[in-house]
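dude i think i finally got it to work??
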Amino acid sequence: MPLTPKHVFNLKTMHRIQTVIQPSSIRIFKDEEYVKAGAVVQEDLSSCSVVLGVKEMPHSFFLPSKFYLFFSHTTKGQSQNMPMLGRLAELGCTLLDYEKAVDRTGRRILFFGRYAGLAGMIDTLWALGRRLEWEGIRTPLQRMKPTHQYRSLAEAKSAVLEIGQLIRQYGLSSLHPLVIGFSGYGHVSSGAQEIFNLLPHRELPPSQLTEWESIEKGPPNELIKVVFHEEDLMRRRDDRRPFDLQEYYDHPDQYESRFEFFLPYLTALVNAIYWSPRYPRLVTRTALKKLYDLHHPPRLRVIGDITCDIEGSIECTLRSTQPDDPVFVYDPFSHTVQSGVEGNGPVVLAVDNLPCELPRASSRYFGNALMPYLPEIAGVRLDADFENCRLSPEIKGAIILYKGRFTPPYRYMESFIQ
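look at this
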């Protein structure tokens, strides 16, 4: 549910918009809280012209001609969601994807990115502690819990600070130097780094990773942080000209990943970079097979794939996971996965709904961002054609389907459901 009881109350008292909420026994905000805020709690949403969700919805949920808002994960042609997209088109529905809502400068306005990064980093530290414990290496990271077991973000941050103090006092013993790499520098990466920065560390540019002897001589009671930007991760295929960011965005086929060079130095990788099939993969199956074949064992223990594109930028992300079973081990020789932290290969964190692990904070944040647009969405007249539907540019640009037909920016998606 993208709205808190406070948002529901404000919609009713300030805009005279009635909200109907489906009952739930697992939602962080109880049904009774929504009732007190003025909502109607019932299963039947057939009377609602606009239906808000967060993630993909089951096919049986959709009703003809409704206006649905959620993260559809369809614009890259994700095969698992094409039947859902086809059903929405068949029923003549309107679909707004939060991910595509941007302001006039092209910046996203509706996102959970920071909270995905926060939860993803907490879970990555937990996974690293568990993996090292299985290997017989005792570290303060063993004290970490997965994000959803903390009562709040503040409690989770306090736990990380306590672990940081233990690292300052006792160091990392045989594990030094412990190097954490971050791919990307947007909202997701910033959220992940916000958690990591609570630990004692120093930051190095990727180019200095090769100076391994000097890194090993550094203080044993701090971690190493490395942030990778596109120019660090990619190179031109002909390798005769330097990296050009705009050219990379326009012609990614002319570039290839050079990240394999850095993998042997990392203890963990936090992947927070945007990726689509147009772009080279960051970590390939081939690179992992080489790494685990040459090093016994390699330094790399954990990949926190916050972006969670299945077989995407991290090719070994073969499936997504859930908070109660968040990690699997990828075997680079059999190309198979096994739940947990035991086995030959990296532990992969691939939870595709990380913000739900910080439900109160993320719901408040997202609802606050969505609220300014809800009055116009609630009052939309779908009897007009798309050009004259009188929605703001931010909302109009995020509509993939309008009354069952793809809008101009998304007509390329017609081939996905044919």
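Residues 193 and 347 are 20 Å apart (CA to CA).
im so relieved honestly
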